[in-house]
Amino acid sequence: MTYQPTIGLEIHVELSTKSKMFCGCKNNPDEKNPNVNICPICTAQPGTLPVINEEAVKKVIKTGLALNCHIPEYSKFDRKNYFYPDLPKGYQISQYDKPLCEDGFLEIRSPISGDRISRNIRIRRVHLEEDTGRLLHENGYSLVDFNRAGIPLMELVTEPDIVSGKEARQFAQDLHLILHYLDVSDADMEKGQMRVEVNISLSSGKELGTKVEIKNLNSFRSVERAIDYEIKRQTELLNKGEKVVQETRGWLDEAVASSRRVAGDSELDEKGITVSQREKESAHDYRYFPEPDLPPLHFSNDFIDSIKKEIPELPRQKKERFIKKYKLDEKNADVLVYNKALGEYFETIIKDLSSDSIKLAADFLINTEAKRYNIPHSYFSQLLALIRDGKISKTAAKEILPEIVTKQPLEVIKERGLEQMSDKGDLEKIIKETISKNPKAVGDYKLGKPNVLQFLAGKVMQESRGKANPQIVQSTLTKLLKEV
Ligand SMILES: [Zn+2]
After folding, report:
1. In the list 4, 302, 332, 352, which could disulfide-bond 381, CB 3.0-4.6 Å?
2. How many angstroms separate the alpha carbon of residue 146 from the centre of ligand 1?
3. pLDDT for the residue numbered 268
4. Please, which residues have CB within 8 angstroms of residue 144's CB and are 6 or more apart in sequence?
5. With a threshold of 0.85, does the pTM exceed it?
C-alpha cells in the first residue's frame, strides 16, 4: 500500500550582519581560532543586557517581504529555555507567538507536475533568534567555541505543502537563490550557514500520520534523499502494521552509513539512512516567556516601505525579463539567473552589442570557459563582434580567451594568424584543390550520398587550418560541386 506524504520544512539561516544579534562582537563565520569573537554579553555573564541588532531585523523583514509575507505591526522576543553546554545563558532568545513575518508563500517550479507548472508553497512564519555555540568532541573530552553563539539566525517555517523529496529540494534551492539575491546571507550549506530540517508524516486517509523530524541535512541532495528514505522506511513500518514513533532522526550520508555497515550493523542502507536521535519535545517543554530584557518591536509603514525599496529584482522576475527582453531560451536564462555574477557580466558585455549578437553572447558565455577568466567587458564585446562578422571562428575565439584578459582580441588574432578566411577567391582555390584531390568523394556526392558534403567541408577546414569561414565553405562547395 502507498501513503500520501505530508512534508514541511524548517530552515535556519545565519545572517551576514557585521556584528552579532545582541552584542557588538564580530559576526565572522570563517574565524578559525576558537573563542575570539566573544564578550560578556554573548557568553552570558551576570548583569549583562542584550541590545537588538537592527540590521538583522531588517534582513529578516526583507526576506519576509520577498516571500510575500505579512509583516505584523508588533513583534517581540521570547526566551526558549533548555540546557545544553553550547548555550551559555541556559535559554535562547527567539520568537514564539509574534514572529517578524507571517503567512507568505514561495512559488516554485514543481518537479512533480513538470517544470512548466508552478506551485505555491505556503510559508507559516519567518522569525529571528540567536545561534548557539559549537561543541567539539575529541579524544574523550569536549570543547566549546562561542564564536557562533549569538550570531543572528533566521528561522523559516513552511506549511506542510510539500509532497516529495524532489519538491523539498527545489524549494530549498529556490530559497537559497533568493537569499543570495537579497544579500541577507551567504547561506553556504557546507559551512552550516543554511540548515534544513524536515517534518514528515504519511497518511492513507484524511487523518495525518505521526510526524517525524529529520535533522543534519547539509546539502540539497541530502534533503531529497533523506525524505525519499524516510517515505520508504515509514511505508514499510505501516505495511507491517507497526507504528511510526514521533521522534527526531538524524541523516547519515552514505560515507558514514557504510562505515557503520562495516562495523556490523546490518539494517543500514549504503545509500544513506536516518537514525533515531531523541523523542521530540513539545513547545511547553521549552517554557517560552517574553524576553524581559528587550523592548517589544513596533514597525511603522515608512520603515517597512523603506525596506521594500531595497529589494532588488528577484530570480523569477529576472528570468522573465531575460526571456522577454533578450529573447533567450529558458535554459540559458536559467543559467544566467542561477549564476548571479555571470548574469550581471552578461548584461554588461551586451550593452555595446547589436541585438542580433545577444543570443551569441549568451551561448558563448555559457558554453565556453569564458567565465573563468576576468576578461574586460569591452574586450569581450569586441570578440563577440568579430565572431558575428565572420572575422574569427568560434573555435579560434575560444582558444584566445586566456589571452584577451590583457590584450585586444584583434591584436591577438593578428599575432597568431587566426583571422578567418572569408575571401571568396582564396577559399575557392582551396576548395577546387580539395575537389580534385578527392574524386571518390565527389563521385559519391553525385550519387546522392548526403554525408559527403560534410566530409569535403571538413577537408577544406583542415586545409585552411581551421580558419575558413564555415558558411562560405558550405555555399561555395555546393556551388563548385555542381560545376564538376
Ligand atoms: Zn559578544
Report:
1. 352
2. 9
3. 46
4. 85, 86, 133, 134, 135, 136
5. no
Residues 68-127 pLDDT 10s: 999 999 999 999 999 888 999 999 999 999 999 999 999 998 766 555 678 899 999 999
10 Å CB burial of residue 98 (0-12, 13-18, 19+) is middle
Please tell me the distance between residue 25's alpha carbon and the centre of ligand 1 in angstroms: 4
Give the pairing of strands 212-217 and 248-252.
parallel
Cα of 34 from ligand 1 centre, angstroms? 13
- The distance from CA 386 to its chain's CA centroid, rounded to whole angstroms, is 34
CA atoms of 35 and 139, how far apart (whole Å): 20
What beta strand segments (E) does 15-89 contain?
74-75, 78-81
Residue 17 CA to ligand 1 center (angstroms) comes to: 13
Q: What is the pLDDT of residues 369-421, one digit of tens each?
A: 777 778 888 888 888 888 888 788 887 888 888 888 888 888 888 887 777 77
| Torsion sign (Cα): 309, 310, 314, 320 | positive
- The alpha carbon of 10 and the centre of ligand 1 are apart by a number of angstroms equal to 26
Residues recorded for the chain: 484
Digit-coded pLDDT (tens) for 273-312:
888 876 656 666 889 999 999 999 999 999 999 999 999 9
Which grid coordinates are listed for 139?
579524544
Residue 355, class by beta-carbon neighbours within 10 Å (0-12 exposed, 13-18 middle, 19+ buried)? exposed
Query: Residue 482's pLDDT is what?
Result: 83
Separation CA 166–CA 174 (nearest Å): 12
pLDDT tens per residue across span 346-366: 998 888 777 778 888 888 888
